[in-house]
């Protein structure tokens, strides 16, 4: 795409090596290739302007109700981010203070999740929950292999049991590390894994069960304690002990503050590892997650590599080598800045806003609530069977005209008949913004309902993955 036009009279100037600064109204424009590496350099101001003009076309992150990921932080966090952008997390020797900060965060998170010995918590920062899931899954697989080999049993057919509602990362894990994924299908109005349908899928080749604290589909919590209890019964009957990993990508930084009595974490002895996204309700910009193991025994030694740290030896477990350290610094900033009370306030406000949205929606005859924000502050809703002129995809598109990004998608197998819209309430989505959103939602519904004929349809996207 030719962003800048070359003027014939400038070609002569180029020969004289004159540097030009093409800004909007100035002559002397250049042709800028965008699909191959250009031959010539340009001034940073020019490149900046070109890139800025382009990324402006992206959706406005503050109106993005589709994502769980943080889109707003304090100004001080922005400054800290810029000041620490050059830090490499793997250079523990060169940036020992950033390494120390990471260790403190792991310890704080271990304590938050009731690790039996938080001061000796085994864990690490990651690029996000996905890397945390890979590491936790690998640890379960390796531990299962060791146990099987020790018992002279075959290790060629590992499987992982989880609900059909799991996030796409678990499908990736199973594919990349060659583990058979066993999805427990959804049933009726229960849109996540429950204890009663679990045991049919578990056997001696099960490396673990994944329980999700905060399903991406509707924000609901899976009953982790009941899932553990079912596996206790299974162990009593079969002698096979199946560990549980909790995918607390979102819930890991919500439940400790909003539902402190709920036992979903290391208080349950069967839970061997937990991961969460620092960049979701951990309230940090994209690029950080955390994974913590109950104790060192659940992270097999032969998965751990060693890097140099102050001339000594630092054990690491990661898929990446180099990785930004700034997000870890930002996580520490948030822990200091907010403390338990601050996190509680932020998440409570999100839940209040979600509750308000849910109540306003429930009052509408066109809307059927699927989740009301009482687990994660997520409101999921479908259209009433009486609505025939339009569907959830039309509502999503209409909302986009107002700037709001609200995904529409169908539920996983067995409930693919259920098409929903989902609003994720995050820090920064205020009561005032919620009012504006409700105004635009109701206006959209009325506009669609006033059409003289139903909306014409193109083919819909098959699924939505985040
Ligand atoms: C978002 C999410 C993931 C993936 O997390 P990233 O931090 O985006 O890598 C995994 N599981 C669940 C339940 C999620 O919500």
TrEMBL record:
Keywords: Decarboxylase, Lyase, Pyridoxal phosphate. It comes from the Bacteria. It holds the Pfam family Pyridoxal_deC. InterPro entries: Glutamate_decarboxylase (IPR010107), PyrdxlP-dep_de-COase (IPR002129), PyrdxlP-dep_Trfase (IPR015424), PyrdxlP-dep_Trfase_major (IPR015421). GO terms for molecular function: aromatic-L-amino-acid decarboxylase activity; glutamate decarboxylase activity; pyridoxal phosphate binding. The keyword Lyase applies. It catalyses: L-glutamate + H(+) = 4-aminobutanoate + CO2. GO terms for biological process: L-glutamate catabolic process. The modification N6-(pyridoxal phosphate)lysine is found at residue 280. The keyword Lyase applies. SUPFAM superfamilies: PLP-dependent transferases. One of its GO terms (cellular component) is cytosol. Its cofactor is pyridoxal 5'-phosphate. Its EC number is 4.1.1.15. It is an enzyme of class 4 (lyase). Belongs to the group II decarboxylase family. This is Glutamate decarboxylase. It comes from Nocardioides panaciterrulae.
